[in-house]
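Q: What would this chain look like folded?
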Amino acid sequence: MSNWVVSTTELWHIVISDVLASSAIAYLNYYWLLPKYYGKGKYGLYVILSVLLIASIVIVRVSIIGLSHRSMTYTYFIRSVPAIGFYLITTVVWFFANLIKAQRNEIELRNSQLASELKFLKLQLSPHFLFNTLNNIYSMAYFKENNTAPAIMKLSEMMRHMLYEDQGRFVSLSKEITFMENFIELWRLKLDEKPKIIFTHQGIKDRHQIAHLIFLVFLENAFKHGNTIDGTIEINLNINAGDRLFFYIRNDVIAGRKTAEEESGVGLTNVKKRLNLIYPAKHELELDQNATSFEVKLTINLQ
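A: My prediction, written as structure tokens:
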């Protein structure tokens, strides 16, 4: 310690002054230099100002406290170490903080784009359904069928579900099933012929949620493009103990018609996009059509 020119008390003053000086460098680097210069791409100016900042604070600090070692060079060196250390630490922290912020912004942007795309798909879906249903009710009213009033009431209940239950991406599966039952009943009222319609569901719990109107396109497809004269429409929805949903719908088709995918147009394309957006890597969809029937098999992991 013969080369040191300070007492124990003075040494503590030096340590405290080092911490204060280094903290000032850290603060100015984090809140001024990095965001104002480095963050805006002014890398050269940032380096110059950083060097000037460290050098000026070290010089001022040595001027105020004085030499703590008989060697002036060593004094400036030893006083620069904590200053540079604090500077490097705040730089690393700033980079990590901005990396996390950028990732968070990317996630928020992706979620925003997802929400916008889902909203766009839903906007296409609802008018598509309403247009088809109003056409059906119009034909019933035109021919003065007695089922017109009940059909309008069913449509009112369905529109209430479409408008007021859609407060988020998911809705109660029980309410979605009620919507499907109303949809089926609406078609029963409309049809002069009485095709065989089977709708079963089991394993549904109050906690189960599902994407709003995710089954609507498949229902529309079965009734609009299927054989509703003397055919069969079978719908089955089950959930197993592992909260895995199995949806199956099969309808007879009229020979010579285009395939369901060709006739459905935007409908099936939209539901595939919605499934990919809402249930990525959590669903499986199979569409199969032969000369006599069209089948949909959809599996969704609800966990």
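The helical segments are 8-36, 43-65, 72-142, 148-164, 173-190, 216-225, 260-264, 266-278.
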